Every structure is written in C-alpha cells, then in structure tokens.
C-alpha cells in the first residue's frame, strides 16, 4: 500500500515507525510495540524474506542524519529479525493479516525511537465502541506518492472512517469486525505502505496518547477507493500472549 494525498511527517513525531527492508530493498512498514517486537502485516513476511532487517528512528531515506532547521534527530538504528510470528489463522490477505517480528536485541528508547500504545485486553468492548465511533484516523508510511516512485521522507495523512457496510459492498463478506475501513476523497493508502500503523489519539490517565488501532492490509487495485486495515483491537490478546510465549519458551 502507498499513501496518496499525504504530507511530510514532522521529524520524530512518530518514533514507533519501523522501516522493514531486505538488503536496503523496501519490504513494508511496521510499528515498534515493545523493546523487542515490531508489529506488521502477515502478507509482508509470507513467504518469509531472507535477511529481513528493521530500521528504527528513520525519517528521510536519503540522509544519514535527519535535521530540520539545525535540529537533528539521533541516527537511525538497525536490527535483525530473528523470529517471525504470523497469526496462526492467516491464509491470505483477506483475514488475520498481522505478524510479530522478534528483534535480535533489546531496543534502547530515544527521542526518535519509542513504542506505540496498544489496547489492553480487558478493555476490548470499550475499545470496539470507541474505534467504531471515531471519524478520522492518522496513517504514516514511506509508500509511493503522486510524484515519487518511493517517498524518501516519511509521509502522514488523515483518513476518514468508512462504514463497514459500504466497505463490504466493495470487498464482499471478507470485511467484518476484525477490519477497519478508511479513506477520503484525496487521501488513501495504496501499494507501498502495507504493514504501516493506523492510529488515533485517546485519553489515558487524564492525558492524550497516540494508540495504534489498525495495520494497512489491502486496497483497491487502482488506488482509488477505500483501504482495509486489520483491526488491532481484535487481536490484542493474541499479540500479548505471543510475546509472553516467546519470553517464556524461546528466550
């Protein structure tokens, strides 16, 4: 998927963004969710790519150091992917399109590298209602733009939530509560940004935080309509249980 109608993101404004690549060949976007795990789409890693790397703290792909008005962010950091967990029910892009990537070492947080918030399992129903009521989300990624084959600067765009019934009419029965549909007349995702996070601001402990609610999954062939996102709220329990399993049995 790629972002069309987007704009340059503010430097270090989305420190959870992950740039997945294979020998510097762009693979997909992703999001840092813990010191050792990145969340992305399952179709990005099926079949499993060799020598998959994750770059954190990236902004402008053409520069070693990212600076705006003489203010520079710390240099990006590279991590190897040592294990890949795709959802056990994943068979195609139509459903269960999410995966966890285990990094080769613990990530040191900086001003340019921090995890994104996820929904806690005990608040499923509350979050389902909240996500369904949201009118607008924010998407970020390095996908193709109207003028560049690959955007060298991280892009962001605001997307309007689309009723699932409308989305169902376009994609069929494969769109259900485990998906989020979003797009707008001038901003939407297309080929190039798969795996990137869809998020929104929520109130937590009397302050606003940014939480991930979706993962770019699929869109129309000609990039002219609604984009379908994996609804992260539906899979938070699997995400947390997989991380706990890895810590207990794979360390």
UniProtKB/TrEMBL annotation:
It holds the Pfam family Trypsin. This is GD11200. It is found in: Secreted. The keyword Cell membrane does not apply. One of its GO terms (biological process) is proteolysis. The gene is Dsim\GD11200. InterPro entries: Peptidase_S1_PA, Peptidase_S1_PA_chymotrypsin, Peptidase_S1A, Ser/Thr_Proteases_Immune/Dev, Trypsin_dom, TRYPSIN_HIS. PROSITE patterns: TRYPSIN_DOM (PS50240), TRYPSIN_HIS (PS00134). Residues 3-244 form the Peptidase S1 domain.
């Amino acid at each position: 998927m790629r972002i069309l109608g987007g704009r340059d993101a503010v430097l270090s404004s989305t420190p959870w963004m992950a740039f997945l690549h294979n020998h510097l060949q762009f693979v997909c976007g992703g999001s840092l969710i813990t010191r050792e795990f990145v969340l992305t789409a399952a179709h990005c890693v099926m079949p499993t790519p060799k020598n998959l790397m994750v770059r954190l703290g990236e902004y402008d792909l053409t520069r070693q150091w990212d600076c705006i008005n003489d203010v520079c962010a710390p240099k990006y950091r590279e991590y190897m992917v040592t294990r890949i967990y795709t959802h056990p029910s994943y068979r195609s892009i139509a459903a269960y399109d999410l995966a966890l990537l285990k990094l080769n070492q613990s990530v040191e947080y900086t001003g340019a590298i921090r995890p994104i918030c996820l929904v806690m399992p005990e608040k499923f129903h509350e979050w389902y209602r909240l996500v369904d009521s949201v009118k607008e989300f924010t998407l970020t990624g390095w996908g193709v733009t109207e003028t560049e084959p690959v955007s060298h600067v991280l892009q962001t765009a605001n997307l309007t939530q689309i009723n699932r019934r409308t989305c169902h009419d376009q994609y069929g029965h494969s769109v259900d509560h485990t998906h989020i549909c979003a797009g707008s007349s001038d901003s939407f995702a297309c080929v190039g940004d798969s795996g990137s996070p869809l998020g929104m601001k929520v109130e937590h402990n009397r302050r606003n935080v940014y939480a991930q609610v979706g993962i770019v999954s699929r869109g129309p062939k000609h990039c002219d309509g609604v984009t379908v996102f994996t609804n992260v709220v539906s899979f938070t329990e699997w995400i947390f249980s997989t991380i706990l399993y890895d810590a207990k049995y794979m360390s």
